[in-house]
Amino acid sequence: MRNKLVLALLAIALVGVAACKTRTDRTDTGGVILAVTDFDGLPSVVSVNCFLAEVALGLCDAETYGTAHLSIGEITVENIVADPTGGSSRLMDVQLTRYQIGFRRIDPGSRLPPTQFRNVGLFVPSNGTASVTNLPLLSAEAFTNQPLTDLRLRNGGVDSETGSETQLIEFELIFHGRTLSGDEVQSNAFTFTIEFRA
Fold it and tell me: Are 106 and 168 in contact, with CB atoms under 8 Å apart?
């Protein structure tokens, strides 16, 4: 009998803990979900040597390269109220402050550019969207460091690790910010692949 009572109390305690965790998880997101919903002007193939020559000569094509960096032409973030039946308020508006870009090789290579963190100032109202243009992905400096520097013609134009004339790199972009009520939020991971060539 005593064991049954202990088990019953333990079960009630576990249910209480689970309920608290659910509330905490929801509070931590400020009751909103950030999602990258649209993008435009993202190159699928980039020539390392053409990019560096354009930057060096000051002839950057804004539609292709941005200004001295590889960029997304335009990207849209949506602020979705997590529980539409619960209503929304201005406290659910989000101020995006930074974004991070991680990398993964989807070819046999293993070397990667370091994860990047960049500042961004973008206000996304609850149940609304906001867009940013020419969002930098890689600076010109990244093209002069490993692994991309292998593809420079003066370095042989071939990945020294794989022997390939191309590198397939997957980008993972995540936006970070805060609701006006002070809760930290982040977007879904937006992934895309770029093929880098000599």
Answer: yes
